[in-house]
Amino acid sequence: MAKIKSQQVTHHGQTWVDPFSWLRADNWQDVMRDPSQLAPEIRNYLEAENAFTEQHMASTESLQQKLYEEMRGRIKEDDATVPANDGAFAYFADFIPGGQYPRLMRQARSTDEAASEAATVLLDGNEEAKDKAYWDLGATTHSPDHKILAYATDDKGSELYTIRFRDLQTDQDLDECIPDTRGDIEWASDSRAVYYTKVDANHRPLFVYRHTLDTPVSDDVLIYEEKDTGFYVGIEKTLSGAFIVIKAHDHQTSELYLADAANPSAPLTLIAARQTGHEYELVHHGKDLIILTNSEAAEDFRICRAPLDSPGVENWKTLVAHKQGCLILDICAYHNLLVRLERENSLPRIVIRNLNNNEEHAITFAEDAYALGMQSGYEYDTTNLRFTYSSMTTPAETYDYDMVKRTRVLRKRREVPSGHEPENYVTRRLLAPAPDGEQVPVSLLYHKETRLDGSAPVLLYGYGAYGISMPASFSANRLSLVNRGFIYAIAHVRGGKDKGYHWYRNGKHTKKPNTFSDFIAAGEHLVGEGLTQRGRIIANGGSAGGMLMGVIANQAPDLFLGIIADVPFVDALNTMLDKDLPLTPPEWPEWGNPIANKEDFDIIRSYSPYDNVTAQPYPHILALAGLTDPRVTYWEPAKWIAKLRTHNTSDNLILLKTNMDAGHGGASGRFSQLKEVALDFAFALKITGCEETQPLS
User: Catalytic one among 254, 473, 543, 608?
Assistant: First the structure.
C-alpha cells in the first residue's frame, strides 16, 4: 500500500484530493536524462511494487521461461532485410545468432545473391549496446557520397537521442556528436551538412538545426523554431533528394516548409500556412509538388498537384478526387509514377498511377483480410516498388513489384524456425453493434481445434486514438496464447481510422467516450455470439490504449476477468492539466484542453481512469511502466495501481511492474522484449487457470 499524502487540487471551481501526487517526481526532466536522480522514496516504492509483482508471479516463472523459449524459437536468429539499392551500393540490416540488435550492412550493388557474402558491417548494434542496460538505434542515414553514416542512439529509453557520424572509410566516429535530439537526421546534397531536430528542456522537438561536419556543434545554424509548444517539428527528405521537408504539426493541423538540399543557405519555402483542421503531406515530382490534403472538406483526403515555383493552396489542382469512405493513407512519387496506399471497407490496397497518361491500376490480393506496407526505398528514377504483405495467419512477405510490367517477385518470406502451418488457424471478422448503432469490426484469430462453445478464454486488444488503425497483420508471439486455446481478438474501435477518417473523428475529443463503449460492445458481442463468457475475457491495451483499459475497468469490471495495461495513460486529467509535460500541449486537440475549456475539463474528468476509481470489485490487473518514459510518465500507472489497491473490494491481483532501465517501448533488444510479453501472457494464463495447458501442435 502506497503512502497517502493528500494534495488538494482546484480547477474550474471544483476541488478534489489527489492522494498519490507525491509519486510524480518534481525533477522529472533530470530523471529523463539521468535516472539516478529519482528521489529515493519514489524509487523504493517502485522497487517494492516490482518485488510484490515478482512474488505473486513466482508460480509462473517456469511458464514464463517456456513462453519466452517458444517465442524466441519463432525468430530466425540470423535474419536480414532485403537489400535496398542506392547508386553503386545496396544497404540492409541483419541479425547474428544470439544478437539482440541489428547490424547495418552494405554491399556492392548486384543482382547476384551470393554478393551478400562480401557485405561490410557499417554499425554493429551488439557492440554499441555492450554493457548498457538499454540501447536503441534511432534514425540512420548515409551521406549522398556514401562516405559518412549519421546515426542516432538513446541509452536510457527517454527518447533523447545523440547523433554521431561514422567515417565509413576508417570505420571510426568523428569527434563531433549532438545530444538531446529527436533522433531524425537528413543530409544536404553536399554530404557535408546535416539537418536535425532538437528538443527543449521539456523534451519537445521544437527546433531544426543544420550542422556542418568538422565544425563545432555550438556553431550549428538554427533553421526553424516552432513558437507554439502545441506543435512538434520533424524533418524528412524527399525521395528526389532535392528538398528537406520541415513539418510542424499537432494531431489535426500541419504546416510544411521546404529547404533546398543543394543550397542550404537558401530561405525556407512555406507551402501552406497552418489552418486549424487542415492536414497535408507532400512529395516532390519534377517541377511540381504532389500534395495529400483534406482541404475543401475532403475528409478522407484527396491528392493535388501544384507548381514548385508557386505552391500556394490557390494553385492546388485535384489529381485524385476525394471519395468518401476511401481513406488515402500515404503517397510516394517516382520519376513517372505516383503510388498511393488507401483503405476502403477496412481493407488496404496499393494503387499505381502513370503520371504521363493518368492510367491507374491496383495490386490485387487473395485473402479477405490482410495488412500492407510500402517501402519507398532510396531511388527516385525507378519502376520498382517494394511492399510488404501479411495477414493474421500469413507471416510477412516482402515483394518487389514492377509498376510498368505489373509483375511481382517475392524477395523474402518471414521464416518461423519452430514451424508454422497457416491452415491450422482460423481468422474471422465480426461486426459488434455499438450502443448508437455503429458496427464495430472485431478481428479474430484462433486455432482450428479451439472449442467455440463459450469455454474459450479471449484476449481482446484495443487502442483507439490518434487515428492509428490496427492492421490484420501477423504476430508470431500471439500464437503462444492461441495454441493454448485462447481466441485472440482485436476491437477496431472508434478513435482509429479503421473505417475511414470519420471513425477517428467520432472517437476523439468530445466524442472520446465512443471508444470505450465500442470496446465494451465488442466484448459483449463475443459473449452474445457464444464464443466466450462474461468474466472470461482479458482486455489488453497500451499507452492511449491503456487509458481504454483504465476506463473499462471502471465501467464494466464484471465483463472482464483481467486487464493488462501496458504503459497506460490513466492519469489523464492531471496530465492534460500539466502544461509543462512533454506531450500535453500537442495532445489538447486529441483530448481537449481542460485548462482553458470547462466543457473539456468536465468530459475528461468524467472518464479519466485514475479520477473515477471507486469502491467496487475490480478484475485482475497488471500494469507495466517505464521509468524514463516521456510519453506516459511512470507515475501515471503507479498512481493508478496505488488508488486501485485502496478501493478494490475483490481479492483479485492488482500488480505493477516498472522497467527501471527503459521508457515507453519497454526493454530494448529483440529477445529482452520477449520477456515482457512472456510476463503478460503468463498473467493471462494464470488468471484463466490455463497455466498447465499444453500448446496444440
Answer: 543
User: Dihedral sign, CA of 256, 260, 265, 270?
Assistant: negative
Q: What is the pLDDT of residues 238-285, one digit of tens each?
A: 999 999 999 999 999 999 999 999 998 899 999 999 999 999 999 999
Name the band, by pLDDT with cuts 50, 70 and 90, for residue 117. Answer: low
How many C-beta atoms lie closer than 10 Å to residue 435's C-beta?
12
pLDDT at 236: 98
Decide: 450 and 111 in contact? Cβ < 8 Å. no
Q: Which grid coordinates are listed for 18?
A: 489527489
Mean pLDDT, residues 666-685: 97
Give residue-wise pLDDT tens across range 315-371: 999 999 999 999 999 999 999 999 999 999 888 999 999 999 999 999 988 887 899
* Residue of 79, 220, 629, 661 marked catalytic: 629
State yes or no: pLDDT of 114 exceeds 60: no
Indicate if 158 belongs to the active site. no
Cell 537526421 found at: 185
Q: Residue with C-alpha cell 494464470?
A: 686
- Non-local CB neighbours of 639 within 8 Å, separated by 6+ positions: 18, 20, 21, 23, 24, 570, 571, 610
Q: In 10 A of CB 273, how many CB atoms?
A: 9
DSSP string, 210-223: EEETTS-GGGPEEE
Report the C-alpha gap between 472 and 483 in whole angstroms: 18
Cα–Cα distance between 256 and 262 in angstroms, integer? 18
Measure the CA–CA gap between 313 and 311, rounded to whole angstroms: 7
Tens digit of each residue's pLDDT (9 = 90 or more) over 411-468: 999 999 999 999 999 999 999 999 999 999 999 999 999 999 999 999 999 999 999 9
Question: What is 506-564 written as a DSSP string?
Answer: TTSGGGTHHHHHHHHHHHHHHHHTTSS-TT-EEEEEETHHHHHHHHHHHH-GGGEEEEE
How many Cα neighbours within 13 Å face the side chain of 411?
Answer: 21
Collapsing DSSP to helix, strand or coil, 276 comes out as coil
> Do residues 138 and 152 lie in contact, with contact meaning Cβ atoms separated by under 8 Å?
yes
**Known catalytic residue: 191?**
no
Tell me, what amino acid is at 696?
L
Amino acid at residue number 293:
T
Strand pairing class (254-260; 14-18): unpaired
For residue 634, pLDDT over 80 is answered with: yes
Dihedral Cα 308, 313, 317, 323, nearest 10 deg = 130
Q: Are 534 and 558 in contact (CB under 8 A)?
A: yes
C-alpha span between 253 and 248 (Å, rounded): 8
Contact by Cβ (8 Å): 672, 50? no
What is the chain's mean pLDDT, rounded?
Answer: 96
Nearest 5 degrees, angle CA 585-CA 21-CA 584?
A: 5
Cβ contact 199:206 at 8 Å: yes
CB 583 within 8 A of CB 525: no
Question: Among candidates 556, 559, 561, 588, which has minimal Cα distance to 575?
Answer: 588
Clarify whether 146 is annotated catalytic: no
What is the distance in angstroms between the CA of the first residue and the CA of the last residue of the chain?
A: 43
Q: Over the stretch 526-564, which tens digit does the pLDDT of each residue have?
A: 999 999 999 999 999 999 999 999 999 999 999 999 999
CB 562 within 8 A of CB 620: yes
Q: Are 618 and 648 in contact (CB under 8 A)?
A: yes
Contact 82, 107 (CB under 8 A): no
> What residues have CB less than 8 Å from 321, skipping those under 6 apart?
302
The secondary structure of 112-136, three-state, reads CHHHHHHCEEEEEHHHHCCCCCCCE
